[in-house]
Amino acid sequence: MASLAFFTISFIVLALLSYKGASVRPSVPALFVFGDSLADVGNNNYLDIPVNLKSNYLYYGIDFPGRVATGRFTNGFNSIDYIAQNLGFKMSPPPYLSIKNTQQMNQGVSFASSGSGILKTTNNVTLNMATQVKYFKHVTHAMKKKLGARLCKDTLAKSLYIVVTASNDMFAYYASTEAGNSTANTQFISGLVDKFIDQLTSIYKHGGRKLAIYGTGQIGCIPYLRNLVPSGGCIEELNQLSLQFNTVAKQRIHQLSNQLAGFNYSYSNSYNVASTILASPTAFGFTEIKSACCGAGKFNGAEQCNPNATYCSSRNEYFFWDWVHPTQAIYNLTSYFSLYANSTSLVEPVNFKQLVDL
User: Fold this and answer.
1) Which strands sit side by side in the sheet containing 210-214, from one edge to the other?
2) What is the reported pTM?
């Protein structure tokens, strides 16, 4: 772990020094984003849903340009924003529900929705993955009408598809079962991955060829859950589910790549990325890795960030922004892992930038 941490710190320093912001011309024609609150840039603003599934209010967005609460579940930018900037876009693609004309789709669309999951049963008020894929199909039809069949096919094939999902499915499963039965856990993960593979296949059938997939992280260690555990520790059953999901998903996605002509992918192992940061947090500039910056109660995990909450001033030193989600400092850091790391324990079989260049 020490050698990996040393490699990672060196790599991040070099990446940050070499990064100069958006280039003149984007590396891909468009970005299409699927997933949950780790990727949401505002779709939930347009839904009539409980306030805890939204983030278009203070103190969210306190470090976003103009101090605007956009619907991102963090204090500023999320990883999608940083990936978009690194690939030459001025900003990440707009939320699907905000789009009023096809001109707004020119450089992609975000379908991500906080609270959503792979399974429809995980959350029935936000945009689950099946709905997101359906909306993507609508977008491809609009693009075909505008660009013509040949140019549309070429544009879709060269574009990048970012997928960030599955955590909420495991939260919901744990809430109903406590993940106490190993056989049932294995069956759940197998079925979850089956459905996920179906959704990735649908993206492929509608034109997607380059899929950048985020694995699930240490979901049992979020401040909300630490607040519920008397010892303040992690819920290891959830972490084990996450590890199981990553293992099975990577195997099945690799198999899928051998079955579908032209299907290319990169799998960012968020669990190992988090482990690397947490093994040497101060080396990366982080001094607080358990408590949220904004919230209330133990670990600031008893309440969601809101206008009445307390929030820290040293936000760049915190791993978590609120009771569930990372700070923009973490998103900035992890986006570099996904884009540029050349260790297969962090991202495989290629990194996101290599995937773009295929």
Assistant:
1) 108-110, 31-35, 160-164, 210-214, 264-268, 347-348
2) 0.94
